[in-house]
Structures are given as structure tokens and as C-alpha cells.
């Protein structure tokens, strides 16, 4: 049996995940993500395949670079089935609605038309069904589908397609085993082909088993100075991880009780979706949630509802903690807080995740002494701290370890979802250390698989 795998997005780049598998008489897609950052205008280009010919779209997880073009696919005639985990389905709707507004804003600036609207999103949700990890679903042409826990964000999955004893595993994004809420990534030992993410293919992260203690120290020091701790955080997973950690520290009285503001309406919606799906947490957390414990709620926590309230956060006297998006300070409510707090030597800005080149977050890590925010020069006097222990991605070692588990059956690994240098480095390591064939497909490549 032969199939053809087409690499349409996230090949030779990080965003816009999109793969097509032609199994003979039917076509299925894995992910249909938005291209973000450079090359954004390509989201408006037509699909290179005919959307109405696709029978199934399988979604790895709810990040927008994996789902952001789904409403467009539907608008352009896709009438098939969309399958993901139940949690991914629950997260997808608020994330798509949020992305729609950001995209509309960018479209207006770039003089482009509407990409899709809320009706298209509703239509996409109507085609969507959620399944559990490990559940087997029959697809056309004798292919069977199983979703395996990727440990990246709530509900994230690897897609395993099997036929006649052979399998293709698309990893989506792979978690680093760092979330306090999620179980570790499922170990795959029998893949024939692996389509594998390589975001951190050339980075090795130091072990960070002390991260909760480090967070505790940063909170304590900032409070002792009488300052505010500002943490730019992504709305999905990172914010919930941190809410859970801060709650734990406060409940256990390891840090003083101070107000904690979560300034992101999206994060509030996402948190509700998390609580509605306790089956995706670690067994311990799940038991606690099912017993009625509010793992994200504590007396000091307040969700900020609107922009006016966001400004008023600073009227609260004394030390406090603020979590706000975006995670790389590339926009959003966090900018207003940075403008207020960066000049204050008593305050701390804590960076907890990867900061892309060119973002404000990156410039702060690199030691910028002044920044221009809303056309205003802002001196940076606040303490800038970093804590990478909550990263949602595997590093180069972790990725290699993942392939090692299936090295005896893997005939080829395709490294995608990475900058070219990271992908090339990881592919080389897989070849050298594991003696497994590893290549870096380019966007538009097609490969015939014995599947
Ligand atoms: Zn992701």
C-alpha cells in the first residue's frame, strides 16, 4: 500500500501547521493552522488543495498556528469531519474567536479583506467532534486513527494513523513534561513514520526542578520591596499553570497573601474550559477537581473584566501580582502594565517563556534600558527575571529521547515546525545518534510512504 504525504505548512518554518495524506481514494488533513509573524499575508492565499475533497481534518491541539485557518477551510467548501480531543474542541472556539479579531485588525492595516467571520467559526464547530485519548476511529481506506497525549497543552494530542500494521505519528507540539497540571507525553514505541516538531531542535534547557521554589523567591523578593510582580503569560496553559502554582504557594502560606490579577478575558474563558475537562489533568489533579476543589480559585485572585478595570489595577495599593497577555509582550493588556511598572525599581517583570526575536519580551531579556511603548520612552528600572521551568515544549534532548523510544521501528522521521537551523540540527542528531533516517521537508514537498 502506498500513500502520499504533502507538507503544506510548518515545513521549513514554525507556524501554519498543515499536512495532507492521500491514502489512495481519500484525502485527510492534519491541522490547518494560521501563519503568524513573517509571511502572515499568505493566510489569504487560496489552499493548494480543494477543500471539498478532504474527508477528515484531524487536529493535534488548539494553538492558533494549528487551527487558525479551519474556518477558512470551511468557508472554501470543506464539508468533512473535524476530529480532535474533547478539550481541544472546547478550547478551539474561544481561541478562534479571539484570533479572528486579531486577524481582522491586521487585515485592516494591510488593506486585505476579511479572512473569515463568526459564522464560519460556528459552521466549523458544527463539523467538529471530540474523542478521548486512545479511542480508535475508523477512517476511509482502512486507516484507523488514535489520538495520544502529547503533554503540550490541555487536550494536546499526537495523531497516530495506522493501516495494516504500519503507522504514521504526527507529534503536533510535544510537551516538556513541565506542566504541573498535565500528565507526561505518551511514549510511542512502534511508529513507522514520525512527522515531528522541532521548535527547540537546537536548544538544550537546563533542568529546572526547583521552579516552584524559584517562583516563590521572585514573589517574596518583590513583595518585600513593596513592588508589583508582572508576568506576561499566554492565555492557554501557561496562565493556568501559573494560577495553580501561585494558588498553591498562597494556600500553603509559602508567600504572603497579596492580590493576584489575571488581566485577560480570554484566559478567563480558557480557564473555564480547563475546569470543564478534568479528565485531561494528571490523575492527582483530576481527583481533586472531581472532589470539588477549585484548583484555580483562591481569595486573592481577581479576573480583570475590561480595559477600564485594567487601568484601575494600579490603584490597588501595596504589592500585588499581575498575569497578563500577550506572553511575549507583543501586544495586549500587558503593555499597559509594562508602561506603568517598568520604570519602578521596586517591581519585577518575570519572563516565563520563549520570547521571539523583535518582541519587547526579548529586548527586556537582552537588557534593554529603555523601551518605546505607545510612542513613549519608558526607562527600564524594574528587575527583569527569567524562569524557563514552565516551558510547554521539549528541548533538543527531549525530542531525541522521543525518537529513541521508537528508533527500532522508525523508517523515517520528518522534522517540521522549526526554524531551518533548528530542524537541520535535530535531523542531524537523529541520524548520528540513533541511526534513523531523518529529513527536513520543505513547504510543498510530497513524499510517497509505504503506508
Ligand atoms: Zn502548540
TrEMBL record:
GO MF term (any one): RNA endonuclease activity
Metallo-beta-lactamase domain mapped to chain residues: 15-227
UniProt key word Cytoplasm: no
The keyword Hydrolase belongs to this UniProt entry's keyword annotation: yes
Domain Beta-Casp: 239-364
Domain of life: Bacteria
One Pfam family here: Lactamase_B
Keywords, sorted A to Z: Hydrolase
UniProt cross-references to InterPro entries, sorted A to Z: Beta_Casp (IPR022712), MBL (IPR050698), Metallo-B-lactamas (IPR001279), RibonucZ/Hydroxyglut_hydro (IPR036866), RMMBL (IPR011108)
Segments forming a coiled coil: none
Name by which UniProt lists this protein: MBL fold hydrolase
Amino acid at each position: 500500500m502506498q500513500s502520499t504525504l504533502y507538507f503544506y505548512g510548518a515545513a521549513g518554518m514554525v507556524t501554519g501547521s498543515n499536512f495532507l495524506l492521500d491514502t489512495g481514494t481519500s484525502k485527510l488533513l492534519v491541522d490547518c493552522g494560521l501563519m503568524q509573524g513573517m509571511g502572515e499575508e499568505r493566510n489569504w492565499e487560496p489552499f493548494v488543495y480543494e477543500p471539498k475533497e478532504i474527508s477528515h481534518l484531524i487536529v493535534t491541539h488548539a494553538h492558533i498556528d494549528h487551527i487558525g485557518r479551519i474556518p477558512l477551510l470551511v468557508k472554501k467548501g470543506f464539508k468533512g469531519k473535524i476530529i480532535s480531543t474533547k478539550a481541544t474542541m472546547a478550547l478551539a472556539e474561544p481561541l478562534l474567536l479571539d484570533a479572528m479579531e486579531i486577524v481582522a485588525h491586521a487585515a485592516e492595516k494591510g488593506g486585505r479583506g476579511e479572512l473569515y467571520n463568526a459564522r464560519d467559526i460556528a459552521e466549523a464547530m458544527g463539523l467538529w467532534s471530540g474523542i478521548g485519548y486512545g479511542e480508535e476511529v475508523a477512517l476511509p481506506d482502512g486507516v484507523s486513527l488514535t489520538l495520544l497525549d502529547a503533554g503540550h497543552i490541555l487536550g494536546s494530542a499526537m495523531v497516530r494513523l495506522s493501516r495494516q500494521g504500519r503507522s504514521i505519528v504526527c507529534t503536533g507540539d510535544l510537551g516538556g513534561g513541565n506542566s504541573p497540571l498535565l500528565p507526561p507525553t505518551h511514549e510511542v514505541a512502534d511508529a513507522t513514520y514520525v512527522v515531528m516538531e522541532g521548535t527547540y531542535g537546537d536548544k538544550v534547557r537546563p533542568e529546572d526542578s526547583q521552579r516552584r521554589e524559584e517562583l516563590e523567591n521572585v514573589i517574596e523578593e518583590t513583595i518585600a520591596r513593596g513592588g508589583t510582580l508582572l508576568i506576561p503569560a499566554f492565555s492557554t496553559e501557561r496562565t493556568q499553570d501559573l494560577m495553580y502554582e501561585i494558588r498553591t504557594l498562597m494556600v500553603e502560606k509559602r508567600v504572603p497573601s497579596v492580590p493576584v490579577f489575571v488581566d485577560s478575558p480570554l484566559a478567563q474563558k480558557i480557564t473555564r474550559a480547563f475546569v470543564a475537562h478534568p479528565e485531561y489533568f494528571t490523575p492527582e489533579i483530576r481527583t481533586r477537581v472531581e472532589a470539588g476543589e477549585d484548583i484555580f480559585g483562591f481569595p486573592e485572585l481577581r479576573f480583570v473584566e475590561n480595559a477600564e478595570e485594567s487601568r484601575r489595577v494600579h490603584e490597588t495599593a501595596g504589592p500585588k501580582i499581575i498575569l497578563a497577555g500577550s506572553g511575549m509582550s507583543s501586544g495586549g493588556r500587558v503593555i499597559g502594565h509594562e508602561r506603568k511598572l517598568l520604570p519602578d525599581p521596586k517591581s519585577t517583570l518575570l519572563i516565563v517563556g520563549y520570547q521571539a526575536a523583535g518582541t519587547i519580551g526579548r529586548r527586556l531579556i537582552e537588557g534593554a534600558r529603555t523601551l518605546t511603548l505607545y510612542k513613549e520612552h519608558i526607562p527600564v528600572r524594574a528587575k527583569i527575571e527569567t524562569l524557563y521551568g514552565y516551558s510547554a515544549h521539549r528541548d533538543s534532548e527531549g525530542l531525541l529521547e522521543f525518537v529513541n523510544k521508537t528508533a527500532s521501528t522508525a523508517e523515517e522521521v520528518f522534522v517540521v515546525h522549526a526554524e531551518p537551523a533548528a530542524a537541520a540540527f535535530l535531523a542531524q542528531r537523529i541520524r548520528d545518534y540513533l541511526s534513523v533516517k531523518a529529513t527536513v521537508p520543505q513547504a510543498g514537498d510530497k513524499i510517497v510512504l509505504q503506508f
